[in-house]
Amino acid sequence: MNKLSIRYYSQDIKRHQHNYHQLVLPLHGEIFITLNNDFKTTVSTGSCIVIEKNVVHAFTADEAARFIVADLDALPENLIHLLCPKISIDSRLLSYLQFIEQQLLFVSDEKLTSSTFDLFYLLLCEQSSHSNIDKRIDNVITIVKQNLAYPYTLKELADIACLSVTQFKTVFKKSTTMSALQYLTMLRMQHARALLTHSDLPIALVGERIGYNDASAFSRRFNLYFGQPPKAFAKQ
């Protein structure tokens, strides 16, 4: 199986099941779906519904909506036995879906199609299974990612979420299983590693990109986080 396709649905309610796993990822518009007659949800751009094999599902959508549908022989481990089958997808996968759409519409090369699916699956493996992330927290994370160099305080993050600091800390931990500062550190360190690996930026400048104006302080923090100094990842 392991196939990607573009689907258009109608407002007529359809109901079926199949012997393979299926993911529905909206490109434009939304779909209303029911699984096993009990779980009901609306899935829109930026989210995904995971339909395990042999699960009976009914769905309806506006005819102008478009979706990428992935039929899978096996689900990646992070998407097996989800408490909630609806998950949010990150900006990388969301952007890649636009590329997939163009590939499916205009390219018929089998090798390229296979490679397109392989990268899709790799990105899928990196999606968070925290499907119940609070929208206010999701908005905070989106804003933080746009400027990782800014020295955010808990008060500023809480204000973005329109919560008190105490409420924010509780909701953030519930949504991500980490404190806000732990999550911010993770984002910064992962971004720094990506810059070191895929660009020729000097180590000091990489540190500045994530808020460290002192190169030594950046190197110490990076080494503490990854167990290796920045130069171990720096592009030669």
Question: Which features would summarize this protein structure in a list?
Answer:
alpha+beta; 2 domains; 5-stranded antiparallel sheet; 236 residues
Report on this structure.
- With 236 residues, the protein is α+β, with helices and mostly antiparallel strands.
- The protein folds into two domains: 3-125, Sandwich (Jelly Rolls), CATH 2.60.120.10; 135-232, Arc Repressor Mutant, subunit A (Orthogonal Bundle).
- 43% of the residues lie in helices and 20% in strands.
- It is built from eight helices and nine strands.
- The strands form two sheets. The chain has a five-stranded antiparallel sheet, covered by helices on one side. It has a four-stranded antiparallel sheet with strand order 2-7-4-5, with no helix packed on it.
- The longest helix is centred in the last third of the chain and has 19 residues, at 180-198.
- It is globular.
- The mean pLDDT is 90.
